[in-house]
Amino acid sequence: MTDAWIVGAVRSPVGRRGGALSTVHPADLGAHVLRALVERTGVDPGEIDDVLWGCVGQVGPQASNIGRTTVLSAGWPEHVPAMTIDRQCGSSQQALHAAAHQIRAGDADLVVAGGVEVMSQVPIASPTRLGLEAGMAHPRGGADWAARYGDEEISQFRGAELIAKRWGLDRARMERFAVESHGRAIASTAAGDFEAEIAPLAGLAVDEGPRPDTSAERLAGLTPLQPGGRITAALASQVSDGAAALLVASDRAVDRNRLTPLARVHTMAVVGSDPVLMLTGPIPATATVLHRTGLSLAEIDTIEINEAFASVVLAWADETDADLDRVNPQGGALALGHPLGATGARLMTTLVHRMGRDHLRYGLQLMCEGGGMANATVLERA
């Protein structure tokens, strides 16, 4: 069985809602990172066997298989196929898993995994909202769902609140975590740590999300998203626009195309979790993927876990005894933003570049997902 090697990883800057990327068509934004990927790796796009593309809001400009539209918009040959994947926030991390599966099975030699989301144009939950406005049923409106879960409110915001309460996470602790996320992102930007992974676009060369004026005092004055709750806008990931892509290659493709491996896809896992709490999946996903590797968390040199909410990361850290100094050392989605379908590939791009820059052997990526799921991926530096 061949190994699956990440040989290229690039992303756009992450734009704020209404910011520099807000008017860029999602297919054009995705095409930009695809062109940058082949430019940086030197691979002929006509040699690529498949493109697996994450996107959550598959409506409007992101409908009708945005992955395929993106490939054609990039000017790649028409024989290069594409598929769009929806595993909610983990869509493009799942795309990487699927790419690695194709490579390992011997069914492909070069596969692109990535994703896009322009939330300025396609707000979160747009497919559900537009469906209801058109007179369609709710996705969880079936009798069998009601028999199992009743009429409980199912939302990521409620899940984040429930997690904060169940794990005893007070607002002050979560706000300190958010301030740290912004501080790390700002320091990494100033140090130029993101430069190698970003393909500038629309006059934007750095992420728009990090706020230098973030402080515990400012965050303490914000109103909770729910009356009496602990979660504020500052403790939730930012609504964002962005795209990212990775090139995954077989042993044969590495040799034939004289590619330089950056990291090996070591081990993968995906789990389901409580759909009401929704966002606790990284806890069992960590246990599952580490069991498969035979590694302990202490042997993992660096970790990326999506900061969907501060409560998600802190509950996970409390359960796993993770060293937060090794978690999201360049900041996370509280500061950098969370362009849904692109975030898995964005995190992986940052992780791969950090492992190479800092000569780290093992990296772990975790993503909580709508519906109560989580992806986990262990990389080993080449």
From TrEMBL:
Coiled coil: none annotated. Residues 259-381 form the Thiolase C-terminal domain. CDD domains: thiolase. This is Acetyl-CoA C-acyltransferase. NCBIfam families: AcCoA-C-Actrans. InterPro entries: Thiolase (IPR002155), Thiolase-like (IPR016039), Thiolase_C (IPR020617), Thiolase_CS (IPR020613), Thiolase_N (IPR020616). The active site is at C89 (acyl-thioester intermediate), H338 (proton acceptor), C368 (proton acceptor). It comes from the Bacteria. Keywords: Acyltransferase, Transferase. PANTHER family: ACETYL-COA C-ACYLTRANSFERASE (PTHR43365:SF1), BLR7806 PROTEIN (PTHR43365). Residues 5-250 form the Thiolase N-terminal domain. Belongs to the thiolase-like superfamily. Thiolase family. One of its GO terms (molecular function) is acetyl-CoA C-acyltransferase activity.
